[in-house]
C-alpha cells in the first residue's frame, strides 16, 4: 500500500518534525513512482499523509482536511477535526491517516488515525502508517529512536525506517523526505523537501552496515570451546 512516517526532533532552532514517504502508486497489474506527494499541508502549522488502496481521492481528502481545520491550530481542534474527516470516509477501516504539526505554542505532535480513531503518538515521538509500518516501527525500536533527539540523528532514523519499510508489499523505493517547522510557508501550500543526494548517502551508509557484526562468529566459537557442556 505505502509508507508514511513522521518523527519529532530538536535542534538549536527549536522543534522540528521529520517526515518520509514513498511515492509509489499501484494498480491491479501495474505501478509507478514519482507522480504523487503523499504528505500535504493543512495550514501553517499542520500536515497530513494518508495510506489507502485508492490514492485517487487524495486531493478530495486534502481539501476536506483544510476546510475542517481552517484557522485551527490547537491539538484538541486537530484531534477532533481529523476524526471527523476520517469518519466521513465511505469505509474508514480501509484508510489510515498520519497527522503531524505544531500547536499554538509551537509544541510538536504526531497522531495516527485508523478504523479505531485517533491515537496521539507523542510519548514515543513517531508515527508510521501503511503496509510498511511494522518494518518501520521495528527499525525505530532497533536504533533506538528517542523523542526529540537531535535533528541529524532523527533524519537518519526516519530515512532508515523508510528503507526498512521497502521490504513490505506495495512500498516504493523512491523516498520523499521533509523537515517541518512551525509557520513555514511555501508557494502553492507545498511541503519542503530534502535533496535526493543526502537521502542517497544515508541509504549507502545504511546498506553498508554489517548484518552480522565483525568478529562475532569467532567470539562465540571461543566461548563454546571453553564450555565443554556445549560439545556434542
What's the SSE blueprint?
Blueprint: E1 4-11, E2 14-22, E3 24-26, E4 31-33, E5 39-41, E6 46-51, H1 58-68, H2 75-88, E7 96-102, E8 108-114, E9 117-120, E10 126-129, H3 133-142, E11 149-150, H4 151-165, E12 175-180, H5 196-207, H6 216-226
Parallel strand pairs: 1-11
Antiparallel strand pairs: 1-2, 1-10, 2-12, 3-4, 5-6, 6-7, 7-8, 8-9
H/E element sequence: EEEEEEHHEEEEHEHEHH
Q: pLDDT below 50 for ≥5 consecutive residues: which ranges?
A: none
Helix fraction bin: 25-40%
CATH class: Alpha Beta
Kindly identify the CATH topology: Glutamine Phosphoribosylpyrophosphate, subunit 1, domain 1
Shape: globular
Q: In the CATH hierarchy, what is the architecture at level 2?
A: 4-Layer Sandwich
CATH level-4 homologous superfamily: Aminohydrolase, N-terminal nucleophile (Ntn) domain
Helix/strand structural class? alpha+beta
In terms of DSSP E residues, the strand content is 25-35%
Strands, count: 12
Main β sheet profile: 5 strands, mixed
Question: Outline of this structure?
Answer:
By secondary structure, this protein is an alpha+beta fold.
Any key phrases for this structure?
27% strand; 5-stranded mixed sheet; 5-stranded antiparallel sheet; Glutamine Phosphoribosylpyrophosphate, subunit 1, domain 1; single chain; alpha+beta
Amino acid at each position: 500500500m505505502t509508507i508514511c512516517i513522521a518523527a519529532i526532533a530538536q535542534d538549536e532552532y527549536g522543534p522540528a518534525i521529520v517526515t518520509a514517504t514513498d511515492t509509489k502508486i499501484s494498480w491491479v497489474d501495474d505501478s509507478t513512482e514519482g507522480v504523487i506527494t503523499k504528505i500535504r499541508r493543512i495550514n501553517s502549522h499542520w500536515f497530513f499523509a494518508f495510506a489507502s488502496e485508492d490514492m485517487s481521492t487524495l486531493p478530495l481528502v486534502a481539501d476536506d482536511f483544510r476546510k475542517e481545520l481552517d484557522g485551527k491550530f490547537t491539538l484538541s481542534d486537530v484531534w477532533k477535526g481529523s476524526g471527523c474527516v476520517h469518519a466521513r470516509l465511505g469505509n474508514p477501516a480501509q484508510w489510515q491517516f498520519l497527522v503531524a504539526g505544531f500547536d499554538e505554542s509551537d509544541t510538536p505532535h504526531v497522531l495516527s488515525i485508523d478504523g479505531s480513531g485517533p491515537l496521539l503518538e507523542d510519548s514515543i515521538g513517531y508515527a508510521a502508517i501503511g503496509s510498511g509500518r511494522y518494518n518501520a516501527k521495528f527499525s525505530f525500536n532497533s536504533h533506538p529512536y528517542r523523542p526529540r533527539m537531535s535533528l541529524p540523528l532523527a533524519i537518519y532514523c526516519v530515512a532508515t525506517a523508510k528503507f526498512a519499510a521497502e521490504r513490505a508489499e506495495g512500498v516504493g523505493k523512491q523516498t520523499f523526505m521533509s523537515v517541518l517547522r512551525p509557520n513555514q510557508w511555501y508557494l502553492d501550500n507545498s511541503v519542503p523537501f530534502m535533496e535526493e543526494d543526502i537521502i542517497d548517502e544515508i541509504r549507502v551508509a545504511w546498506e553498508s552496515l554489517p548484518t552480522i557484526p565483525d568478529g562475532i562468529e569467532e567470539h562465540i566459537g571461543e566461548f563454546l570451546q571453553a564450555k565443554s557442556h556445549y560439545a556434542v
